[in-house]
Write a structure and sequence with these properties.
14 strands, 7 helices, single chain, globular, seven-stranded mixed beta sheet, D-Maltodextrin-Binding Protein, domain 2, about 30% strand, alpha+beta, Fructose-1,6-Bisphosphatase, Chain A, domain 1, five-stranded mixed beta sheet
Length: about 260
């Protein structure tokens, strides 16, 4: 049986090492280094270098584990334990010199996320948790907000980059939340959105067209901070299903209902 606490504290160091690499590379970063993976989907040598660094340090921790990273530098799937890594979440922010952007590392065991670490580089804040543990930021326990009604809630979301197939219902959802809550925010880093939700700064978060590496670590941290997570129908397909809704337990039923009503009907 793995000691998840010990592994998590090792992962904290790895995430911070990747963050330091990213921070240093940003100082001399030039637009010529940007590659395009797809419409509005960018990558650079910094993303790839961060993933290489993370992989090299994670591999000895659990030698039998697989690896799923956004940049596909060392993808090995089908293992009982699987690392799920976003080496630079918020690449568009990064290339424009705009925070937040973060490193996100999760460990999955047989389809269950059991460890999550998010390092937000701009504020030098590291969020983490593991199965059956509290959620932490910089080693202090954090928890989701206690907001009970949507009218009192601050909601975060993300805009689609290339998949505009649900743009019309998404705009409908934005229209509702802008008019019926404290406001709607878009940071450009889903991992950071979830970390801030876990700390109670946001009350709810939803987005579609996300990948597992965007949400795996954050979903675990939100859960361990007392929040609830689902897909737009309230089911459990939010890691690999491309859609996620999250909120504190007081707000979740009302928030989920409105996300479902605006996005799914």
């Amino acid at each position: 049986m793995l000691n998840l606490k010990n592994i998590c504290y090792n992962v904290l160091d790895i995430a911070c090492s990747a963050g330091e690499f990213i921070r240093k590379e940003r100082e001399g970063f030039k637009s010529e280094s940007i590659e395009k993976k797809g419409l509005h989907d960018f990558v650079s040598y910094v993303d790839k270098g961060s993933e290489e660094l993370i992989f090299s340090k994670l591999e000895p921790l659990i030698p039998e584990a697989g690896f799923l990273g956004e940049e596909n530098t060392h993808t090995v799937e089908g293992k009982s334990y699987q690392w799920i890594v976003d080496p630079l979440d918020g690449t568009t922010n990064f290339i424009h010199g705009l925070f937040p952007y973060s490193v996100s590392i999760a460990l999955m065991h047989k389809q269950e996320i059991v460890l999550g670490v998010i390092y937000e580089i701009g504020a030098d804040e590291i969020f983490f948790s593991w199965k059956n543990a509290p959620a932490y930021c910089n080693h202090k326990i954090i928890s989701v907000s206690k907001t009970e009604k949507l009218q009192d809630a601050l909601i975060s979301t993300g805009f689609p980059y290339s998949n505009f197939s649900r743009l019309k219902p998404f705009l409908n959802s934005m229209d509702f939340f802008m008019q019926n809550t404290h406001g709607l925010r878009r940071l450009g880093s889903a991992a950071t959105d979830l970390a801030y939700l876990a700390r109670g700064q946001f009350d709810g978060f939803y987005e579609y067209d996300l990948q597992a590496w965007d949400v795996a670590a954050g979903a675990l941290i939100v859960k361990q901070a007392g929040g609830l997570i689902g897909d737009f129908s309230g089911g459990g397909k939010y890691i690999f299903g491309g859609e996620i809704v999250a909120a504190n337990s007081n707000l979740f039923p009302e928030f989920l209902n409105m996300v479902n009503k605006t996005m799914c009907r």
